[in-house]
Design a protein that fits this description.
Layout lengths: L1 H17 L2 H26 L7 H9 L4 H17 L4 H27 L7 H39 L3 H30 L11 H24 L3 H5 L3 H32 L2
Length: 273
């Protein structure tokens, strides 16, 4: 078993070097940064039509994002929205275009992992990227709505039994569990559909599981490091929050691509290659 694990890790390490995973992760970080604020603008402009507030949106991001970036994100959103309230159309176009560019990088990385070429027409590939973007936005909205309604329902049920204080402890565990499940679903669909290779949904599970657990643990560890040891503001001044955000996006892209490499290794082993 130890030899198998060692061989697997060695093969994964070779793939990381040969497929230039660090370089692709850096490209992903760039497009993640470009798409972040248009996506948040789009979601903020939707808030009047949803039973959630801007605080609910920021609280969901705050669960995973490094603490040092939250003030930066919040201040920029407020500044942009105060200048022009009619930003919904801009937010839609910019978010879709930037996010679909990022998904194109993911598709290219997964195709490299499976050693296949992109044979789908440009409009099909771009359309798939946009549809995945739409799907992720819908899932993101669901992720916002579930905690809000879940908290209201939970407080009502627990108050009926006089257990409102106990609910708050239980709710924190449930909230993390629900967020993890949603992340797992997103990653599973991404690993299943994005590569130009016919795959089963089950074959996407190993990479999705790794990406879900790896991203949550890495985000929490990086947030703890930034909050307690890494004083980026002292080294980079006012752009320290941007540097922290880019490093977080880089780690996110790295983990997503490694998940695809893990699925590709299992796929080749199953095919006997």
């Amino acid at each position: 078993m130890g030899q198998i694990n060692a061989a697997f890790i060695k093969q994964l390490w070779m793939r990381i070097q040969c497929n230039d995973v660090p370089g692709l992760a850096a490209q992903l970080a760039y497009f993640f940064l470009l798409s972040l604020f248009p996506l948040l603008i789009f979601l903020v402009t939707l808030l009047p039509y949803l039973p959630i507030t801007e605080d609910d949106l920021l609280r969901l991001i705050e669960d995973f994002a490094p603490r040092q970036t939250m003030a930066f994100i919040e201040s920029n959103i407020n500044q942009i929205m105060s200048k022009n309230e009619k930003l919904l159309s801009f937010g839609i176009i910019a978010a879709f275009w930037s996010a679909s560019n990022g998904l194109n990088i993911i598709v290219r990385a997964f195709n490299q992992a499976y050693e296949v070429k992109e044979s789908r027409p440009f409009f099909v590939a771009r359309g798939m990227a946009i549809l995945l973007t739409v799907g992720m936005i819908i899932v993101f909205i669901v992720a916002l709505l579930l905690p809000v309604f879940g908290r209201q329902i939970g407080l009502f049920l627990f108050s009926e039994f006089g257990l409102s204080s106990e609910f708050l402890v239980t709710w924190n565990a449930i909230r993390w569990f629900v967020s993890s499940i949603i992340l797992f679903v997103i990653f599973t669909v991404l690993y299943w559909i994005a590569p130009n290779k016919k795959l089963t949904c089950i074959s996407a599970v190993p990479g999705a599981l790794f990406a879900t657990v790896g991203w949550i643990l890495t985000s929490l560890a990086f947030s703890f490091y930034v909050g307690n040891f890494g004083n980026y503001s002292a080294a980079y001044g006012s752009i320290g929050a941007v540097i922290v955000l880019m490093v977080w996006f880089y780690l996110t892209g790295f983990i997503i691509i490694i998940g695809g490499e893990i699925n590709a290794i299992f796929s080749r082993q199953k095919e006997g290659c």
